[in-house]
Design a protein that fits this description.
This protein is of the alpha/beta class and 190 residues long. Helices cover 38% and strands 17% of the residues.
Length: 190
């Protein structure tokens, strides 16, 4: 079994995670982003294209996750990048993580057009407005209204996962289930 795993994963990764731009509109107390030196830096288009070309050349099933410490939807290159990967590979599956505040109708429409997206993951982190604002530095009602809009769409084709850090958090999951029953929710250990 170990030999099979080595053969499958030693030469090529199971997932490639890329931060195309180090920019986030949140200031989460648990995230190192507020203290990083590279804020606002963009990965060059040439390097992004080189990485994508290499991933596609592997011709194998894998995940592509365009995020690290950033809010990926702040980079206007994200949707064209994901569309290009969709057009060039039928084996690469994407995962998009967001804090939810950038889920504008245009961004939602762009995400909806993507093929092979395993899910849109929204790090909501709490359902209590005051705690949310202290924890993330964002306005809870603004983000919740964007999630309300996404939830109202009958034709959004992808799974949506709402997450919180702190396990178990049954109150969070109960709130999410009642307000956004079409979405999944999860509580993650800190």
């Amino acid at each position: 079994m170990l030999e099979n795993m080595k053969a499958q994963f030693m030469d090529y990764p199971m997932e490639v995670s890329v931060e195309t731009m180090a920019l986030c509109n949140a200031a989460c107390t648990f995230c190192p982003y507020p203290t990083i030196d590279r804020k606002g830096e963009k990965m060059s288009d040439a390097l992004i294209n080189k990485l994508v070309d290499e991933m596609i050349s592997w011709d194998r099933e894998m995940y592509f996750s365009p995020f690290k410490l950033s809010e990926p939807l702040l980079d206007k290159r994200l949707m064209p990048l994901c569309e290009s990967i969709n057009a060039r590979s039928d084996k690469i599956v994407m995962r998009i993580f967001s804090n939810g505040s950038t889920l504008t109708p245009a961004n939602i429409a762009g995400i909806a057009k993507l093929k092979r997206l395993s899910y849109l993951w929204v790090s909501l982190n709490t359902h209590i407005a005051e705690d949310y604002e202290n924890l993330m530095g964002l306005n809870f009602e603004n983000t919740a209204k964007k999630l309300d809009y996404l939830h109202s769409l009958d034709d959004f084709p992808h799974a949506v996962m709402l997450s919180t850090v702190g396990y178990p958090n049954n109150d969070f999951r109960f709130y999410c289930f009642n307000r956004w029953p079409k979405f999944e929710s999860v509580a993650i250990k800190q």
